[in-house]
Write a structure and sequence with these properties.
The protein folds into three domains: 2-116, Alpha-Beta Plaits; 129-146 and 277-447, Orthogonal Bundle (Trigger factor, domain 2), CATH 1.10.3120; 155-259, Chitinase A, domain 3 (Roll), CATH 3.10.50. The relative contact order is 0.11. The strands form three sheets. Strands 6, 7, 8, 9 and 10 form a five-stranded antiparallel beta sheet that branches. It contains 14 helices and eleven strands. By secondary structure, the chain is an alpha+beta fold. The protein is elongated, with a radius of gyration of 35 Å.
């Protein structure tokens, strides 16, 4: 087989593969002999079908299959052997490729377009300055953390009289007068409301202080501004709310009050595991430390964004095979339209540039992702997910099984691989570049992400 490469420019090339009969005939003959052994053709015993009939029936398909295999292997082998860093995948050439006739031809020429990654050099050094935002952990953040845990582990208790934040369950009856129910009026045997969400102060005051078992007469139309809330309370359609002016008697059947957890050892153990913290001061310090770690992750994320911008700046003006890449995206993704592609292409190109930058850094620094890297990261993600549900201390066997299930999910695993690589790249960037450290509040940090 003869293979030729013709460079169109620095990032586009054509590869021609000339396939002679001698390149594929032996493989085709072997395939047809196997067909002959297995073929089930009416009028012939298995294995006794004449070779001429087998060739007539399967020869063209066998030749096409073998030539496709040869072309694929030769093309990828040529790219690998010549260390060509291609973008996308080879595509059939539209101008130089001649029609292929497997019936009439014995020798063939296949022509492919390839896109080549432009040459550039990323140098990580202190010549590159990147801002690093150190987020201050203040008392308010710690108190919010305390509030989060006391709320998460709080309890719902029964109460005898209504307070504003209580949940009140009861029966609703539409009234004709203050003392008589409306015939064929609305009756809702089980409904729930919370005085806190009643907008009108006078209507809210009717409930606050009411005893369990008592009845409160109020007007839903006055109590709520939102038609959807009224419709939900009365179990009617939204369009029926406009004509609803009646008062309703709400007979209280149950009052439930949320009680935040107390700052005691029971809460400390639930939050962080048994015996990890043993006092309110230790609890708040642990919260502060955890918040600091979370803030560091946010700071590193912002560093990644700024480092990416700084490193990609060095690629400005670099030529990319735009026409090829657009064609490749359209031919390999049926869901995207040409209009969508043109709108999304600048972002796609930036992602591609960053991918190439990361590849170069990983190669230069010898960065590899080992199995334990992925496992450790998955455990970190799993612990964070369990912690959201108040499970601070998860048994190792439960955690290991959960991680195994995570890794089985191909999409989830690929996402984790990207995140692990980003962490390793960021560690190298952090060591090499000059960090312009800035101490900021959380509010100031969040403003950095606002679109100007």
């Amino acid at each position: 087989m003869n293979i030729e490469r013709k460079n169109i420019d620095a990032v586009n090339a054509i590869i021609k593969l000339q396939v002679a009969k001698s390149d594929y005939q032996e493989a085709v003959d072997n395939t047809l002999r196997n067909y002959k052994k297995k073929a089930n053709v009416p009028g012939f015993r298995p294995g006794q079908v004449p070779a001429s009939i087998i060739k007539k029936m399967f020869g063209k398909a066998a030749m096409a299959d073998e030539i496709n295999k040869i072309i694929s292997e030769a093309l990828l082998g040529y790219i690998k052997d010549n260390n060509i860093q291609i973008l996308g995948e080879p595509l059939p050439n539209r101008t130089e490729q001649k029609p292929i006739d497997f019936d009439a031809q014995e020798d063939f020429e296949f022509v492919f377009d390839i896109a080549i990654a432009p040459e550039f050099n990323v140098e990580l050094s202190d010549k590159i300055t990147v801002p690093y935002y150190d987020i201050n952990v203040d008392d308010k953040m710690v108190e919010n953390g305390v509030k989060s845990y006391t709320s998460r582990f709080g309890t719902y208790d029964k109460a005898d009289s209504v307070e504003e934040n209580d949940v009140v369950k009861g029966e609703l009856v539409e009234m004709r007068t203050k003392t008589k129910a409306k015939e064929d009026g609305i009756v809702v045997e089980e409904t729930v409301l919370c005085p806190k969400y009643i907008k009108d102060d006078e209507q809210k005051a009717l409930f606050v202080g009411a005893k369990n078992g008592s009845a409160v007469t109020f007007n839903p139309k006055k109590a709520y501004e939102n038609e959807a809330e009224i419709a939900s309370l009365l179990k009617i359609k939204k369009e029926e709310v406009a004509d609803m002016t009646s008062d309703f008697k709400f007979t209280i059947k149950e009052i439930t009050r949320f009680k935040e957890a107390e700052l005691n050892q029971e809460l400390f153990d639930k939050a962080f595991g048994e015996g990890v913290v043993k006092s309110e001061a230790e609890f708040k310090q642990k919260l502060s430390d955890d918040i600091k770690k979370t803030m560091e992750q946010d700071s590193d994320y912002k560093l990644l964004i700024d480092a990416k911008a700084a490193l990609l700046k060095g690629l400005e003006g670099l030529a990319f095979p735009d026409d090829f890449l657009k064609r490749w995206v359209l031919e390999t993704n049926e869901k995207i339209t040409e209009k969508d592609l043109n709108e999304q292409y600048p972002m796609m190109l930036e992602d591609l540039k960053w991918h190439l930058v990361k590849e170069q850094i990983a190669k230069a620094k010898g960065i590899k992702i080992e199995n334990n890297d992925l496992s450790d990261f998955a455990k970190k993600v799993a612990r964070a997910q369990f912690a959201q549900y108040g499970m601070a201390s998860v048994p190792d066997d439960v955690l290991d099984n959960y991680v195994k299930e995570m890794i089985k999910n191909k999409e989830q695993m690929n996402h984790m691989l990207d995140q692990v690589m980003d962490e390793k790249i960021m560690a190298e960037v952090k060591k090499a570049v000059k960090l312009d450290k800035k101490s900021v509040s959380l509010e100031e940090f969040n403003k950095l992400f606002q679109v100007k």
